Amino acid sequence: MTDTTGATDSTGTPGTSGTSDSTGTPGTSGTSGSTGTAGTSGTPGTPGTTGSASTTGTPGSTGTPGTTGTPGSHTPQTPPGPPAPLLRTAAELGAFAPLKGARAVVMTMGALHEGHATLIRAARAAAGPGGQVVVTVFVNPLQFGEAADLERYPRTLDADLAVAGAAGADAVFAPSVDEVYPGGEPQVRISAGPMGERLEGASRPGHFDGMLTVVAKLLHLTRPDAAFFGQKDAQQLALIRRMVRDLNFPVEIVGVETVREPDGLALSSRNRFLDAEERHTALALSRALFAARDRLAAQQALHARAQTTAATTGRAAALTALGEARAAADTQAVALARPVDGPSAVRAAALLILDDAAAGQPPLALDYLALVDPADFTEIPDDRTTGEAVLAVAARVGTTRLIDNIPLTFGATT
Question: Is 74 a catalytic residue?
């Protein structure tokens, strides 16, 4: 899976620069650590109900980043506690404990951190005291293009048991490769289709096929009522939701908001590979996303103000006071127009920061910046004035490849 720290690298934490952490199995976004993250950040609801989707697109785990580049405060660390019981086989999982309520599952590739813990706590809250929370830890070989990347992926099972137990998991299901793929690599696999060939799929051909195949298998093995993934791996989350809908899986997929460090960097197992200078450069990803979000908010606030200000000289003065001298020169046009250049202005605001980081030391090597429809990850047209979108970015700093994203809403006036 991929880093779910999108809400956590929840399903998996990418270990190498090419591996995304999300789907509790090698990163899917590269694969993401939780298999996580998804469309708009969903507020987990109880299994069986749909979580309310948040449209604010405000990054930050607990806090809401205010101005550009000011991240929200990050979720407090989970205090230590007894480790969760370790289950190695489907038979052990089936015999573990009678299920009296709903079962919630968090899929990871291990190397658990606070992002994963956030997913586990959300699952615990949704399952309730009578329910059961199972965390899967499985480094999925189908999600790795090179054997070296698979070998490099961090494996910290003892620490994972402690993190999972402290966050509220009832058990950790960590099957072997032979348990998940008893006949060797599966001959029949899930195809991610056209959506799986875009963005992360273009950078890592076949990655999402491997991610969906293991998620499908783990859903069958764990039989949850709800599965929690991080918003950080938005494309992975969107694909999992699509698979569940298209193939009629009886499970609710819950997206959890991206968890960030106090400096704004999205939590990811890959962050451990950054030295101090590289980490400073990597902050450009979240800063670019926040700048784009703030640009859209300012643009939409101006448009709302223009529509409610009387068409008089006082209106022109009001617009001028907002620092929009050009708009004030033609108040009638502003009043009637849609928010001008919404999508293009969003992209431009982010690119200013990313271009600056590309010229720094160490430089940021941009893979893509894309403003996409969360339903299918196709590019948002420049004339879009309403609806949901995801601004996604991927870049390499040194030898580490990082991804991040932020949900946006066009047409909002507050």
Answer: no
d(CA 387, CA 80) in angstroms, rounded, equals 42
116, 207, 220, 280: the catalytic one is 116
Dist. CA 84–CA 133, nearest whole Å: 10
Over its C-alpha atoms, the chain yields an Rg (Å, rounded) of 21
The pLDDT profile of the chain, 414 residues, written as one tens digit per residue, is: 655 444 444 443 333 333 434 443 333 333 333 333 333 333 333 334 333 333 333 333 333 333 344 444 444 455 566 899 999 999 999 999 878 889 999 999 999 999 999 999 999 999 998 999 999 999 999 988 777 778 888 899 999 999 999 999 999 999 999 999 998 999 999 999 999 999 999 988 999 999 999 999 999 999 999 999 999 999 999 999 999 999 999 999 999 999 999 999 999 988 999 999 999 999 999 999 999 999 999 888 887 776 666 555 566 666 666 666 555 544 444 444 444 568 999 999 999 999 999 999 999 999 999 999 999 999 999 988 899 999 999 999 999 999 999 999 998 765
| Sheet with 364-372, side-by-side order of all strands | 364-372, 387-397, 400-410
Distance CA 43, CA 46 (A): 10
pTM of the entire predicted model: 0.75
Amino acid identity of 301?
A: A
* 370: three-class secondary structure by DSSP: strand
Question: Could you give the C-alpha distances from 209 to 37, 215, 249, 314, in angstroms and in order?
Answer: 17, 10, 17, 59
Of the candidates 218, 143, 226, the residue with the CA atom closest to the CA atom of residue 179:
218
